[in-house]
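Ticket #4471: structure export looks truncated?
Reporter: QA, pipeline team
Priority: medium

Steps to reproduce: submit the single chain below to the structure queue and open the exported record.
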Amino acid sequence: MNASINGREYTFEPGETILQVARRNGIFIPTLCHFQPLDHKPGTCRVCLAEVTDKHGRTETVTTCNTPMEEGMRVNTMSPRVRRMQRLQVELVFADHDQDCAACARHGDCELQDLAEYVGLSTNRFAPRLPHERPLDNTMHGMVRDMSKCIRCLRCVEVCRKVQGVAALTVDGTGTGTHIGVGMAPSQNTSACIQCGQCTLVCPTGALAERDENDEVLDYLANPELTTVFAFAPSVRVVMGEEFGLAPGENVEGRIVAALRRLGADIVIDTDFAADVVIMEEGTELLGRIRNGGRLPMFTSCCPGWINYAEKHCPEVLPYVSSTRSPQAVSSSLVKSYLVEKTGISPRKIRNISIMPCTAKKDEAARAQLYVGSHPDTDVVITVRELARLLRRSGIDLARLEPEPFDNPYMSDSTGAAVIFGTTGGVMEAAVRTVYAVLNHRELPGVNVMPVRGMDGLREADVDLGKEHGVIKVAVVHGLANARKLAEQAVAGTSPYTFIEVMACPGGCVAGGGTCRIKKDYQPHAGERQRGLYAIDSHMPRRQSHNNPQVIKLYDEYLGEPNSHKAHELLHTHYTDRSKVQTESISATKKKLTLTDQSA
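Actual output as written to the record:
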């Protein structure tokens, strides 16, 4: 089929929109709500305008993101009328938007600001009006929802429903009061939200953002009485470079260490060490369940988004979830116990700062189960985006730094198994390497467990554990829409699996909600980051967690053995049914609304 855009003929397939045909042929049309990675084209921003003349000579102005191209159609995207209407529409969007850009999380990285430049907006004739109060929700530990910055593109609703299967976000209000809400819950913290942060990756403005805690970190660094201990997750080393123009998947581990030292960090350790410890604990726990008739399948517990989901959406699965803490929680617990004993530093004088690819890690750090008295094991969690802002605030360019090694105070050695924790399938592969070795007294042939690698939403493998236990079936799942099915199977007693790894974010931690935002795209570099982790693993001198000499020393000198009483005290936790709190808060809101209606 044939039609013309700006005087040139183009072919197209039936059902294609004008915007699709234009973009495929390199013709730029400004838009805000349209988001190709999610096939999201609601037509709410009304900026992607064009004049269209059909084969009968009728001319009208349409939104190109949801108008199909037709045979013989003549499209004009650059007429004076179109440009005036686009500029007016952007003015109106800005007028209905909080314009305190300097204080916004997306300052300098805002798609709405970019759009203003695209349409040639030099002045705004309309003062900000915001006639309806829209909520500022800062009840969450991981995120902030500021609806004065919402432009109603609905991308967040789409990713929460389509990708995560959570459906925590809704469209509330009417007219200019319309905004993204959280259903009937009084706050996002008590809603169905699991704080995975995927919505913050797709939000074009600062309406949904991570809770910034950089000033707290700077306060710790400025206090000479405190010892600051920094640790960063496996995936951070292949993500962080993108914030400073380096290639996706490039290993910048040493540069991050150097940058943290320039900030003033006292001790820099590797969360990978704790990931190796997690394998020792979780693998032993799995073997105990197999041998003693425990609840199977056992689900991994490293992902806080998954834990939040299990507690809020399917608490029946909690008995099947491993009690082993995540690498972040294990690292922080050992810093304030084992490291304190080794160094003589007062635990009250240590501040644990964790750098994570995940907004839900902030929520994890605030869990009451991970406190000792009134003191948290993890004092502050900052995301990749926050660390990038912190370095820029301090005038540090990561790309220009020479790599430096970790400090080595008993907690920095790691293995390839720990590195691959950062990608979907990595925890499973690391566990299989160690469980096989423990049972068979020899290493897994070939080391790599290829069937659990990849980006399919569900992957499974048969693992031969040897004569004692034979073949077990394991599964790897990422994205919570996929995880729900496996949880329901486990509760119903129909699961064919013995061990299941769950990561809330598509691709795992390499695509976590706290990683780099890429304008107009969603998770474009997850594959490169994954390959970067596997490359690090393949070049490590030790690739199995049980071969980490510092881990061996930890158990010999401090914990005794995996799953010992002391290990349970420091490295394990428990989970609670939070669905009741969620239901009660929604019921209270409904009751309040009913009473208000009756009064009116």
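Status: closed, not a bug. The export was complete when the record was re-opened. Leaving a note from the reviewer for reference: Confidence is low (pLDDT under 50) at residues 590-600.
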